[in-house]
Amino acid sequence: MNADPTRILLLIFCLNWMLPRPAFAQETAESAVEIARDNRRVQEFVEQHAETRLEAHFNDQFQVWIIELFNDGGKLGLVSVRNGEVVEVDLGNGGRERDSARELIENDVRIRELREQFPEAQLEIGRSDDAETRPFELIVNKREVAAGLVNLETGRVQFYDDMPTNNEKVEDSGGFIKALLRAVAFPQEGPGLFWLSAAVTLLVIFPFRKPLSLQSVDVIALLAIYPLSSVVWGHKWLTYIALFAVTSYFSLRCLLQASAIRRRVEPTTLPVAALVTFLAIAAVAHVQTVATRGPDDSGIWSVFGGQYLWQTGRFPYGQVGGGGTYGPLLYAIHAPVAHFLPPVAHSDDGATIVADRSNFVQVGYQNVNFRPAKVVMLLFDLMLIWSLFAIGRQLQSPQLGVVLALLYAVNAITIQRDLLFISHIAPTACVVAAIACRHHPVSSGFLLGCGASILFWPAFLIPLWLGYFGSRGLKPLIRGGAAIAAVGVLTLSAIWLLTEPVEQKGSIRVFLDNTWTHQEGGGNYSHSPFGFWGQWIEREPERIEQIDRIKSAVRWAYFALCLLPLLYVFRSRPMQPTTLIALSAFYALGLQFWKTHGGGLYTGWYLPLVIAALFSFCDLEEPEGRIAERRDDDPVMA
After folding, report:
1. pLDDT tens digit sequence for 166-181
2. 3-state secondary structure of 312
3. pTM of the predicted structure, to 2 decimals
């Protein structure tokens, strides 16, 4: 199979100019120390404190060099360095106290105005490893109306919405469009990876012979997710609108793929060897990313929850701070891994400390090597990649399997963002694996049930799976349904037996309060500003009741749509595998329309399913239909 000249030129350009460097390779420990020494504040501080020494270590979670300042009296402060620049200097604040923070915040004119508007508002001041600043929130009826930091040195109160972030040299300098352009500006670290993934994606699936087609729009929409997510902090309203537009487009495309109206996708002309090589490189990048970068909150709290489960024989619901928000299976998987590969940190004298829920505040969890979270993340990630390959191979050929796996593995949003979140990767891996095992109803139903036991959202796909099995006969329906039910019964039994009652609440109630209620039922995330609905409410707070009613209507409409696949049980023709894949993607996308916290940014839930639904390059009218029907007439399904 020969590659056309356009793809060859793009390949050469990609390999010669777009290979990104990991952030930690841009400085060594020695150069990071020298950069810190050149800072004026550090120079003045060293002059005032005799025999100060600087020691550097790399912080996985935030991808920065941390340079700590010591003398015989202990730790004096720290400096953080990224990409040749000092991004933070923390040299102490002379022992100012929490009351000083409260006084500074209360005297801020914006806080006083909010106090007049909301007399019942409560000011909550948090802790910080940074001695110079304190985080704060102003809470009204469990809803955050303001949040930010107060600097005890300068007396400055700054709301989070007005702050620059580490992502952004973009935030206040030219608006949304310029921010997007900077987010993909070559050859910076994140953008360099974006252009690499874009080049590979174009090489593999862009229809160069027919560039004006739906497939071209599919490719552009797929590539647009990363730059949009990169600027969300500085331009939340516009970004969430744009992400919802992309989500809406993908939803319509997946419905089209699930319907009788089929579209041929242009096959790649790259040889299989080139595709496999790209996939191998992408897989190595995944391993490196997971190994060298710390997990985000879902991984951290899953480790702490797993430790709690192993040590006490109880789930962490109602016990382990605010981090008990995930499904019981996620904690059960982390428990043995966290026991045999415990998360460790190092004290100032070099001693090894096993980090857990009781000491992480003192240790600072950004300094902990969360090996168990990394191991579990990598296992689910590789499971997801392999399942995409298996789906493509079943639909048409091993080449298609490599293409589907590659499109997911090389995507910048996967590497830069989704590989931080075990709660994004793990349930999706189970759903994709359930599709790959669709010829075996017991295995497929078991995997779907496991996905719902890790995080709640795959439970919305149960009617679809029942419709798929039922459209093929009574035996597949009974086998698949029994497997799903068995996982559900085991999960609920484990919750009931292993969750401690709290404040006269039963086990199931404690579990629901920590998970569903926390996320969507009036808890911390249910009024989150990080999403389309939260941004709309922040812009028009006087319409909060109307917006909540609209959000509720969207949610109930989604619930109703989830039941429709049950009608396939009564159809004479069996549901095609392509329909199962496309509808799975559609329902994963539908959650973005009402998920309150981060709505539009749960890309890990739908991205692999969308890729499988839209970029299968076989002819979906005749050949694929015959192949699917022949394979799904397997005696296993009978």
Report:
1. 343 333 445 667 666 6
2. helix
3. 0.72
